[in-house]
Amino acid sequence: MLILSRKLREQILIPGLGIKVTVLSVGTNRVQLGIEAPRSVEITRPEAIRRPTESFSAEISVDEESFAVVWMGKVRGETRP
Prior knowledge:
Strand content: over 45%
Number of strands: 6
Low-confidence stretches: 62-81
Helix content: under 10%
Distance between the termini: 44 Å
Structural class: mainly beta
Largest sheet: 3 strands, antiparallel
C-alpha cells in the first residue's frame, strides 16, 4: 500500500489509468475525494459491492405433512416470512 499525504485541493494522479483524485474537503472524521476517471474504469466503495453470502442467507425447511416451504433470511435488509 502506498500512503500519500495531500492538503485541501491537492491531487493524486494515476497516469497509466488516466485517474485523478482531488481532496475536496477535510473534516474531523471525514475526507471527501473527487475522482476523475475514464468511463471504462469502474469506481466504487467496498461496502457498495453486493456480496451474496453476506446480503442473503436462506434456510429452507419443509413441513412433511403439508409440503410447505418456509424461507428464513434477509434480502437487502428485509426479512422474508
